[in-house]
Protein 1
Amino acid sequence: MPDKVPYEERRVESWEEFLRLITDSPYSNWAFRGHCDQRWPLFSALSRYLRSFRIDPRAWSGQEERILRIFKRKAHQFLTHHPDPGDDLQWLALMQHHGAPTRLIDFTWSPYVAVFFALERATGEAAVWALNSRQITAQAPDASGTHVRIDPREPGHFREFFLKGDLPFVWNGEPQTMNRRLIAQS
């Protein structure tokens, strides 16, 4: 017997069934992501990239820092406006916008946008992931070892607590400044 997945899976067979599921349901105020292949795990582009080249996971944070450093060094040649040099989360959002592999995974507040991305290139079974964003918080240990909520958007927090990669975390949020693509995708 296969292992039980740690999430609920719902299959819908029609657009009407999907509309019934998301309209006036417990899924309002959730975040959504569409995948054109339902077999794809929920990995970031950076994770897929590093896995495909069989990079040892212990080296992932170093690789990410290298990609970030290179992008920052070259961005001035292509951008008229760029984030503060120390705002790594904002830089990652900008990198994501330009197609660079990052640890970020884009979600939307709109189930309709997620369905569009799921079905746009689907050739078989597609999927829409839905996350209860209110239950997701980033936590990091403080000086006493107690886990406290940490907002990666606060100056220095992302680099101090998250960029090193030694603390597994999931954080739901948006960059301080939204780029055009983020705005268009809700």
Protein 2
Amino acid sequence: MKLWQLSAREGIRDTLARYAHCADSGRFAELATLFTEDGVLEIDGRVPLAGRAAILAFLTSTKTSLAAGAMQPFIRHHLSSIRIDIENTDAAQAASYFLAITHRGPDHWGRYRDQLVQVDERWLFRHRRVRVDGRAPQGWSATRTDSL
């Protein structure tokens, strides 16, 4: 493996981690900058969100939904089994599993499938597909009206 490939892998891991940390702390404007200007967030069962403004608007609504009826709401995303496939110096794909835990306990889980590109030495999502494989029956994700 070449040095640029190792650097690319670390940059991609950093983007994946920043996404989770920004989502968990409600820093959605920062999270939206992890996507290219025309980046797409696709969540199974929903119309794909194209562009940073659409992504930001959707994520802001999730914060309102999570906070509804909770004394101290929180969410934590845990990533595992991260696989990164480097296509070239400026493009890569990643696959990972996630588990989201809220103040109620384990909530929903699934997979991320990502297409990333390098822009100004940062790795950004060109396309992130979220597939939710399961939900806790009484969890936040299962009971929200605009379901993930």
Protein 3
Amino acid sequence: MLNEDKIKLMTGISMFEKKEGKKIFPINRYFKEDYIGNHLVRGFLGYTFCWLLGVIILLLYKLEVLFGTEMFDQIFVVGIQFLSCYVIGLILYLILTFYVFQKKYSYASRGMKIYVAKLRRLEKRYEFQNKTKELAKGGRHHDRTSGI
């Protein structure tokens, strides 16, 4: 016999899995600090690689001008300025990365709590149905008045 409440609950769980599953299930494998730390390291490496690539391209573009003049003191000052811009940009990028992935983790953990609550509610429905069936069977076999 079909139970309409259980069907609605299972459909809701399935829709939740399909809609939110890709966002919340992979995050559930990590602790919050590990998840955020992993993305901070990835952000650091990605930012550093892109920065170095940009500096190399700029150096290759300005190579003739840089070595054509004999102002190595100015090259040193420009290098210090590039390094300070890199550090400031890196700090801002890592702060932004921390904020974004902290929000993602919080969203996923709230979604996981909702998912687990729905599964528990479905489990309680099954337990209630099983207890009802056991009581119905037990009552028939041990009914002394009907002789069954």
